[in-house]
């Protein structure tokens, strides 16, 4: 980011900035955008239906919603812990000047872990 002459944090050349947020004009549906939105809505409806069917199947197999929610919560916790472990392995690999892949055997980890 270039600072203005005053050094007060104002940008010079701001005309080159493109906001990642679409303008209201670009959100106005035209023929192609409207059709794409209809397709996306239909796909989401199909996914919603498939998920409802999967939930119904799991409930019919004897699972409870509380059990499923607990399982999902535990999976999130596992993923958070795994992410922290990957971050630590990455930092250790940088310190040692090796790849994380090279550290896996040292800690009895499988590449699929």
Automatic annotation (TrEMBL):
The GO cellular component terms are: Swi5-Sfr1 complex; Swi5-Swi2 complex
Composition skew (Gly residues), residue ranges: 1-11
Query: Which keywords appear in this protein's UniProt record, sorted alphabetically?
Result: Coiled coil, DNA damage, DNA repair
**Presence of the UniProt keyword Nuclease in the record:** no
- GO terms (BP aspect): double-strand break repair via homologous recombination
Q: Name one Pfam family in it.
A: Swi5
What's the domain of life for this entry? Answer: Eukaryota
Q: Where is this region: Disordered?
A: 1-29
For whether the record's keyword set contains Repeat, the answer is no
* Coiled-coil segments on the chain, per record: 34-61
The record's function comment reads: Component of the SWI5-SFR1 complex, a complex required for double-strand break repair via homologous recombination.
Q: So what family is this one in?
A: Belongs to the SWI5/SAE3 family.
The protein in question is named: DNA repair protein SWI5 homolog
* Protein source organism: Patagioenas fasciata monilis
Question: What does the organism's lineage look like at the top?
Answer: Eukaryota, Metazoa, Chordata, Craniata, Vertebrata
The gene name reads: SWI5
